[in-house]
Design goal:
292 residues; alpha+beta; wza like fold; Outer membrane lipoprotein wza fold like; 5-stranded mixed β-sheet; 7 helices; 17 strands
Length: 292
């Protein structure tokens, strides 16, 4: 019987280890069950204290907060050995009840708030509980762990084949933060001048992509006099020429854009081509926002 119980316990430990590549971490208030192989008198069930500790019947207090169940078992084994309670303990730790049973979703989702979950869930599932991403959501989201406050970046792809990716899971008590996407502005003699969120699949845009999104240049435009206007660290603006024709012909690389950039394609009329940087930046503040 002892041998059979040992094999069963070893099997449970192996299965648990394989299933917990990113296990839920133990936190204050969680109810924990501790099983010690071949020593049932040391089995116990109790809650982790607010300080993150678990009081063993023998072996003193051990800190279990921010550990996985596998790590907690190794910690208890070490405590039993160091306290001379056992020479070769084999311990299995399971969390029977988590104190925190909800995840909070902030930012650019349709229904931000707290949602009840009792097991780790894929990011896409949690976003679904919150009504999905808004049209202005940045797909680079952040998961903040409830015990360690460690932040994990995760990219929510809009490719159907990538939606089953479960490399990052959201645990009960975690926070899921969805920021607002950056906006670039295409102004001047283009089909649809205005602001455009950087919400394509990789969250980036180049000058030629942005101008094409804005309906392309008009026949009356002077694209070779186009300018890229970007805010500086000092709070002002810098204006750089855009080699539009050379980029279209592949002679120069397409210029990547940053959030807040303004691409100005002037009209062929001289007075519009001579607009100052400040005037163009002011026009961007009142530009229409186009959502794909």
């Amino acid at each position: 019987m002892r041998l059979l119980k040992g094999l069963l316990l070893a099997g449970c430990l192996t299965t648990t280890l394989l299933a917990q590549k990113e296990s839920m971490l133990i936190g204050p208030g969680d109810e924990v069950n501790v099983e010690v192989f071949d020593t049932p008198d040391l089995d116990q069930n109790g809650r982790v204290t607010d300080a993150g500790e678990f009081p063993l019947m023998l072996g003193g207090k051990v800190r279990l907060a921010s550990l996985t169940p596998i790590e907690a078992a190794r910690t208890i084994e070490a405590a039993l050995i160091s306290s001379h309670v056992m020479y070769y303990p084999k311990v299995l730790v399971t969390v029977t009840q988590y104190a925190t049973q909800s995840v909070t979703v902030f930012g650019q989702v349709n229904r931000p708030g707290a949602y009840s979950i009792d097991t780790p869930r894929p990011v896409i599932d949690v976003l679904g509980l919150a009504g999905g991403l808004t049209d202005l959501a940045d797909r680079h989201v952040t998961i903040e762990r409830h015990t360690s406050h460690r932040q994990i970046s995760y990219y929510v792809s809009n490719r159907p084949g990538d939606l089953q990716d479960q490399t990052a899971m959201v645990n009960p008590g975690d926070k899921l933060i969805v920021p607002k996407a950056g906006i670039i502005y295409i102004l001047g003699d283009v089909g649809r001048p205005g602001g455009y969120p950087m919400t394509n699949n990789d969250g980036t845009l180049t000058v030629l992509q942005a101008v094409a999104t804005a309906g392309g240049t008009a026949s009356s435009a002077a694209p070779n006099s186009s300018r890229l206007i970007r805010r500086t660290a000092a709070g002002g603006y810098q204006s750089d020429p855009i080699p539009f024709s050379a980029m279209q012909k592949g002679k120069k690389p397409d210029m990547p854009l940053q959030a807040g950039d303004i691409v100005y394609v002037p009209f062929s009329y001289l007075r519009n081509a001579a607009l100052g940087v400040t005037s163009i930046a002011a026009a961007a503040t009142g530009a229409a926002l186009y959502i794909k």
